[in-house]
């Protein structure tokens, strides 16, 4: 089931709006699909399950923060994002390298020695670790700004890389809590805002 989810995410990136972190997300999905498939085929389900559980433990906090942001509960959004940041850093820069990678690199080397697929498996795990370091830096930077300013800053990677950003910035000043679509209609989180209906 999770494999199908990652396949759909990977292929949806070709039809969705390209983000600034497209290459990083594409590498992440390729490595994840490779690890899920590889751990199942080579009967390394325990390691694969631990890696998936470790990665999924912080995801619900990010989704909850997004929901709070959409519902305009800024303080709850900020709190959930800071908690998400702490859990993300602890699991992916603490537990993952010192428990999972230590076991797959050093303990498995001592028990059974390296074998051809050992190199591939650990290479994919290392790719994920490099991505964890990059994302942790970005997340901690946003969380720090949230603590200082009292508000989670805009997600830099979510910007559409086009010339329409300037147009959206000028029309966005009209609506304090939403964004604006390309046709000028005021929107709140992807839905028409009340000011749009009042203008009609």
UniProtKB/TrEMBL annotation:
<comment type="pathway">
    <text>Lipid metabolism; sphingolipid metabolism.</text>
</comment>
<dbReference type="GO" id="GO:0046513">
    <property type="term" value="P:ceramide biosynthetic process"/>
</dbReference>
<keyword id="KW-0472">Membrane</keyword>
<protein>
    <submittedName>
        <fullName>Lag1 longevity assurance homolog</fullName>
    </submittedName>
</protein>
<feature type="domain" description="TLC">
    <location>
        <begin position="1"/>
        <end position="148"/>
    </location>
</feature>
<feature type="transmembrane region" description="Helical">
    <location>
        <begin position="80"/>
        <end position="99"/>
    </location>
</feature>
<keyword id="KW-0444">Lipid biosynthesis</keyword>
<feature type="region of interest" description="Disordered">
    <location>
        <begin position="155"/>
        <end position="200"/>
    </location>
</feature>
<dbReference type="Pfam" id="PF03798">
    <property type="entry name" value="TRAM_LAG1_CLN8"/>
</dbReference>
<feature type="compositionally biased region" description="Low complexity">
    <location>
        <begin position="173"/>
        <end position="182"/>
    </location>
</feature>
<feature type="transmembrane region" description="Helical">
    <location>
        <begin position="119"/>
        <end position="144"/>
    </location>
</feature>
<keyword id="KW-1133">Transmembrane helix</keyword>
<comment type="pathway">
    <text>Sphingolipid metabolism.</text>
</comment>
<dbReference type="InterPro" id="IPR016439">
    <property type="entry name" value="Lag1/Lac1-like"/>
</dbReference>
<dbReference type="InterPro" id="IPR006634">
    <property type="entry name" value="TLC-dom"/>
</dbReference>
<dbReference type="GO" id="GO:0050291">
    <property type="term" value="F:sphingosine N-acyltransferase activity"/>
</dbReference>
<keyword id="KW-0443">Lipid metabolism</keyword>
<feature type="transmembrane region" description="Helical">
    <location>
        <begin position="21"/>
        <end position="41"/>
    </location>
</feature>
<keyword id="KW-0812">Transmembrane</keyword>
<dbReference type="GO" id="GO:0016020">
    <property type="term" value="C:membrane"/>
</dbReference>
